[in-house]
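Lab notebook page, bench 4
Experiment: in silico fold of construct C2
Operator: M.H.
Input chain length: 707 residues
Purpose: comparison with the prior construct
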Amino acid sequence: MELKATELTVGGMNCAGCAQSVTQALRAVPGVASAEVSLNGGGRAKVRWQDGIAPKLQELLTAVTSAGFEAKPMAEEKCHDHKEHSSDGWKLNVRLGLACTIPLMLGDWVFQWGMEPWFRWLGLALALPVQIFCGARFYRGAWRQIKHGRSNMDALVALGSTTAFVYSLWALLTGAHGHVYFMEAASIITLISVGHWLEGIASKRAEGSLRSLLDLTPQMALKADGRTVAVAELQAGDVVVLKPGDRVPTDGGLTEGQSSMDEAMLTGESLPVEKAAGSKVYAGTIVLNGQVQMRVTATGEETALARIVAAVERAQNSRADIQRLADRVSNVFVPIVVLIALATGLWWGLTSSAAAGFINAAGVLIVACPCAMGIATPIAIMVGTNVAARRGILIRDGIALERAGKITAVVFDKTGTLTQGKPAVAAMKAEAKMMEIAAAMARRSNHPLSRALAKMSEKDVSLMNWRELRGSGLEAEINSDRFRLGSLTWLNITGGQDFVTEWTGRGATVLGLTKGGELAALFALQDTIKTGAADVVRQIAGQGLKVYLMTGDNQRTAQAMAQQADIAAENVFAEVRPEQKAEMVKQLQSKGERVAFVGDGINDAPALEQADLGIAVSQASDVANEAADIILLKSEISAIPEAIGLAQATLRTIKQNLFWAFFYNTAAIPLAAMGFLSPVLCAAAMGMSDLVVIGNALRLRRFSTVK
């Protein structure tokens, strides 16, 4: 069921740290299932409510206001029309600021006009518009926070710049001798504005490349009746004609023709996928050859592509547990910095001069801005999840990303995960009549082994009291005779040992059919291991992780399959019933292992939930229904070591970012307090710290696994 959503426009956000503050405030509202806050469109938020909870708009508005920001409902018709990004909002600041600040820097540093009376008045004339127009964003942000008993980086910038400007204005009007700091006051606001502008561009690039996938869908579509209509007008049930080179306009199923489809933009799979009547096709994919017709099954936000983009956006706006460290520090950081700045001002004022006190205090306020700490985690999560999605790996949230970077063991379910999931009858020991009965019993079941047995015969057999015992087999009555079809352990039979030994040794699963408790037939079903499975296992082991195999097959079959996949014999769990998989995962966890379970995302749901990290080998159409932490949008498992490696790299990046952010503040504040850093250098250093954090995160875009 799709959760109800409420959309807001949010004002007063200047950086990713502000967006995180608004996110926290919204998530604290009772009944909120998730909240996504973006700097796009000048600031917007999308809140999803828990099932059965009525939207509480006023509580959301109050929460945002209490956090020191402005909020109002977003008009529905305008929700998708906002193209402005946070970087666009800083352009005026950057242009005006640079136009006024560069002449001041040249005059002060190059031509040494700082003490000339006329240049002091020119400094006032150039710094004043910067203070009024460019500084307005910082003053508004600081005032909103202060009104609610909070403080943020806007307060530090406003205090630092105002301190330099007010002192300089006083010195100019009173005729006091000594240097004035109009250039410093203007450059503080200008340089920090440049930093925010560059940060916005980097964030826009990180989040926009994924969302641009939605632009790959065509604007027009050719219907089967010959009419060309807008894709937005298509409805479920409409039939659309697709020619070679066309992009599929929306999700649907082929009704006529066959073709190869390029689904790389959706799943990361470079090889074309063959499609025929009855095959599913997805919006944005490309028809490579052959003319086909498709019937529309989903449109707009209901398409697989739109759901994937929405899921990744939720992940990019999510929080990792490690972010709490930065949050705790930031919450107490600003008040402490203000105290340090006051102490610095008093010390320099008493031991040197009032000017030195004002300027060094301003330097402390500026250099201490904790913006780098605020964006250290979210920017890494944004880039990491974006890179993963581009490669057909869908990560649910920041916590899943963090867990993926800490796992110590990977458990593979066999059928459909390590194997193709399409078993076939390789051999049988049965009379024709028993084969027909077995096929008839299997026809009513959806189990992969049952579907394979059902193909042996299409003859209809009258069954009475048919039932399926999950993890064991099937039962039915025919002419008062009780038949059972299933695992040999459940049937408790000992006959046909030569047949059983031969085929289990080949990695086949042997099922038996009994009549009245007596063995009537044996069937050997073989599922081929996926191409490259052994290489995948070796790559995972090469990452320092233990690899396990879990299957319902008997020990001999399981060991044969494990040998093909290069999994150690002692790491095989055989004869495990579906309901026991979660318990086996729990046993590994009790031994100190942090477990990733790889399954099909449906039959293995309990194990996926129990595991520290659930990885579902899925298809794009299943995205909305999966509860796994990581979903592979293609059925190949080659993406698993890549997903784990990318998660580990992202976690390392987060830790590196937090380290450099903490190190920067720890080192820079004492230097500014001791007078070694001027306010201008402090402003430049603060901007550089943001760019270092962003640049470090963007390195993930070049991530590759070593094979």
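Observations: The first strand starts at residue 5 and ends at 11. Residues 5-84 form a domain with the Alpha-Beta Plaits fold (CATH 3.30.70.100).
Next step: discuss at group meeting.
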